[in-house]
């Protein structure tokens, strides 16, 4: 009997050992040897070509300043420059060129209105983007292209019924642009599996077209979708596919950094990648990611330095309303700064009355201990109106604070499934809800 017990114990230990090894293998997804070549300072031919093109078209414009179409070309090049280096001044200069062009032709070209709207979407100026798209629609040229962008803007403004109407107007299952918007619609409605299915159809189209820009867009975006679905290996693979096409794609590198941090808890590897991105594409939210990582490590000093860097970059550049969400969340959780958070949340609601904006307001109320007002906001604007994990997390805490959280209205299991997306800093809080 004793020998049988010993054998059973050895068998159980062996099984535990095998299981532990498999678990570690499943946890470890990123491999430095696969992406380290993208962390070296190397020639960015795309950037150099854009700069050459700018010089070329600027000279042509200087020689013939009556040719307004040159301004459109230059504007597009400066917008591309912003996407590569993150310098906000390039985006503003792109806007200036378009407005100059629009004034010259007295606002009579739909295509220019669409270009201005695209620029304003990048700046999070969605109401102004809508105004230009409505002008484009009235002018009539390429209404399908205008409707596609109208869908995008209505989604950003929380006009979901209008967005649905626009989606119906552009319905075409053979159109890449339609499919990626259909995927966004399904994701908004909480049907992530369907969204991925549609994105995979769009990906086949992009691959068949052999258009590198389409492939870049679909690979980087489907990597995000896979991550949200818990398919971390697939997410990583498609970030690598993105980098294979564009060695300097900082968005894909940031995605790999997130996998290293959130999935693997490899903070050293994540910081190494972020430090490289900083040297190439400086945007404020990189410092927020650093702050999250240092917070997870328990390094309060390094976290504060990262936050100070975030606010320094904001103060040195005028980003308009682009970082309102981040600022509202930060100030809401910072003693003495809640008045700023409240002001920003109210501004965001004015700019775009979406569940995401109302969530900011509710979160401010929660953090100042005004649980009743927090509940009033979520009951009208966010409960069962968004599938965003952070909003669901805030809803749970606010319901709990009002003694209204129960088995029927709790989404704790859904949140536990979303820890990768939310980040490891919230894991303990979610478990204890």
UniProtKB/TrEMBL annotation:
InterPro entries: TPR-like_helical_dom_sf, TPR_rpt. Pfam families: TPR_12. It comes from the Bacteria. SUPFAM superfamilies: TPR-like. This is Tetratricopeptide repeat protein. It comes from Flavobacterium jejuense.
């Amino acid at each position: 009997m004793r020998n049988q017990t010993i054998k059973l114990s050895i068998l159980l230990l062996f099984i535990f050992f095998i299981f532990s090894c498999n678990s570690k293998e499943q946890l470890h997804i990123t491999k430095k040897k696969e992406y380290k070549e993208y962390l070296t300072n190397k020639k960015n031919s795309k950037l150099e070509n854009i700069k050459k093109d700018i010089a070329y078209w600027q000279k042509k414009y200087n020689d013939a300043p009556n040719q307004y179409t040159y301004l459109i070309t230059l504007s597009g090049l400066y917008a591309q420059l912003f996407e590569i280096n993150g310098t906000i001044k390039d985006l503003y200069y792109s806007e200036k060129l378009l407005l100059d062009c629009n004034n010259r032709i007295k606002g009579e070209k739909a295509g220019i209105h669409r270009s201005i709207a695209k620029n304003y979407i990048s700046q999070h100026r969605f109401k102004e983007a809508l105004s230009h798209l409505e002008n484009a629609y009235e002018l009539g040229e390429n209404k399908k292209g205008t409707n596609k962008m109208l869908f995008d803007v209505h989604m950003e403004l929380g006009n979901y019924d209008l967005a649905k109407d626009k989606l119906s107007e552009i319905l075409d299952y053979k159109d890449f642009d339609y499919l990626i918007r259909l995927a966004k619609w399904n994701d908004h409605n909480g049907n992530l599996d369907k969204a991925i299915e549609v994105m995979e159809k769009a990906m086949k189209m992009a691959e068949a077209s052999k258009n590198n820009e389409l492939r870049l867009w679909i690979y980087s975006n489907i990597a995000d979708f896979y991550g949200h679905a818990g398919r971390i290996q697939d997410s990583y693979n498609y970030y690598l596919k993105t980098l294979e096409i564009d060695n300097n794609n900082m968005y894909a590198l940031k995605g790999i950094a997130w996998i290293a941090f959130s999935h693997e808890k490899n903070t050293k590897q994540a910081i190494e990648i972020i430090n490289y991105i900083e040297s190439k594409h400086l945007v404020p939210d990189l410092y927020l990611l650093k702050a999250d990582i240092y917070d997870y490590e328990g390094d309060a000093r390094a976290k504060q330095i990262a936050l100070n860097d975030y606010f320094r970059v904001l103060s040195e550049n005028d980003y308009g309303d682009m970082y309102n969400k981040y600022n509202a969340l930060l100030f809401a959780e910072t003693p003495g700064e809640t008045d700023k958070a409240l002001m920003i949340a109210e501004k965001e609601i004015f700019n775009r009355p979406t569940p995401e904006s109302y969530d900011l307001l509710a979160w401010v109320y929660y953090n100042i201990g005004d649980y009743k007002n927090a509940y009033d906001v979520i009951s009208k604007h966010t409960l069962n109106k968004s599938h965003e994990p952070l909003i669901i997390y805030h809803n749970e805490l606010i319901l709990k604070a009002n003694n209204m959280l129960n088995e029927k209205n709790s989404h704790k299991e859904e949140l536990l499934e979303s820890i990768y997306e939310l980040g490891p800093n919230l894991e303990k809080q979610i478990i204890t809800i």
